[in-house]
Amino acid sequence: MHSVHLAVLMTSHDRRARTLSALRALEEQRGLPAGTTFGVHLVDTGSTDGTPEAVRLRHPAVEVMSVGADVPHNQALRIASRNSRSGGGGGGPLGGAPGGPTHSWTHQLWLDDRVELFPDAVANLLRTAAAAGTGTVVVGAVRNAYGDTVYSGRRGRSLVLVEPGEHRPEPCDTYDGRVVLVPRAVYDLVGDPDKLFRHRMGDYDHGCRARRAGVTVFVAPGHAGECVGGPDAPGSREPGIGVREALRRVTSVQELPLHPWWVYCLRHTWPWAPYLMLSPYARTAARATLGRLRG
């Protein structure tokens, strides 16, 4: 196998302990092809808990860029990707490729800082990619503390979660962006997540565009890691909020803002786009109404 250099793209915001755990798990990967190197590019979006300082102290080879708290996740991921192409990151287990610039990476690895990778996760992703060919994206499924798959590949218009197989990769149509291995050949064809999707949906859109370009997508066998910490804030699903507040939340940048969601539906779900466009907002209004009536 040719030498492998992974540009690891990460974002963080006020999750110092989780971010450090994710980096430690990445540093402890085993079973990798000889000469494998990492260049980690972390974009921190205005943390106030000392995340950037802690990362620089404990992992000095990691390239850390601090941006404003108003920079959403998908935009921060795009910045990390840009940084991976322009150089940066030093030597060491999580630094740049020895003897060469960081932009010489062979793969990008999207890694959510809430995911602790299992020790053989990256080796498994690379093995799956090598067997499938250079034009293949490989997704790492993520489980919660109870062993349930919470992030993985997705299938169909309704984005059904794909359970990983025990021994064989599972095909899928798109992916959650928690653990995703993107070979250089695919990146050159598809590019970064679209800047239109500032926070959510950029990963789903990227996967759909990759499939449309002829890229195959597989979920690697087994789970790649575990999602640590508690669940996300309930947002528009919070019990007891009124219809107006629920709709305000569901159309916010954190969930499904109107214009990006409409563009996503037009791109990838035609001729069902009008129905799929309206359905999450109708469900949100109905859920809030029923919640108030039951309360």
General description of the model:
By secondary structure, this protein is of the alpha/beta class. Helix content is 36%, strand content 23%. It has 9 helices and 13 strands. The chain has helices spanning 16-27, 51-58, 73-86, 121-132, 184-190, 202-212, 243-250, 258-268, 273-294; strands at 5-12, 37-45, 63-67, 107-111, 115-117, 136-143, 149-151, 153-155, 160-161, 170-171, 174-175, 179-183, 216-227. The strands form 2 sheets. Strands 1, 2, 3, 4, 5, 6, 7, 10, 12 and 13 form a 10-stranded mixed beta sheet that branches. It has a 3-stranded antiparallel beta sheet with strand order 9-8-11. Helix 1 links the parallel strand 1 (5-12) and strand 2. The longest helix has 22 residues, at 273-294. It starts with a strand and ends with a helix. Residues 97-103 have low confidence and may be disordered.
Summarize the structure.
With 295 residues, the protein is an alpha/beta fold. The chain has helices at 16-27, 51-58, 73-86, 121-132, 184-190, 202-212, 243-250, 258-268, 273-294; strands spanning 5-12, 37-45, 63-67, 107-111, 115-117, 136-143, 149-151, 153-155, 160-161, 170-171, 174-175, 179-183, 216-227.
